[in-house]
Amino acid sequence: MFARKPRLRKGLRFGREENMPSTKAVLIIGGSGFIGSHLALRLRDGYKVFATYFSNPLRIRGVTGIPLDVSNRNWVKRIVYSSKPDVVIYCAGNNSLEWAEYNARDTERLHTGGPATVSTISDILQPKFIYLSNAYVFDGNKGNYKEGDTVLPSSILGKTKVGGENFIRGKAFNHIIVRTSLLFGRGNGINTSLIDDLRMKFETGQRIELATDELHSFAPISAFTDFIVRLVDSGPRNKTVHYGGLTKLTPCEFARAFATRFGYDPALVFEKKTGPRDESMLVETQTFDYSLNSSFIVETLKVQPLLLEEGFDLFEKSLVTRL
Question: Is residue 20 part of a domain?
Answer without folding.
Answer: no
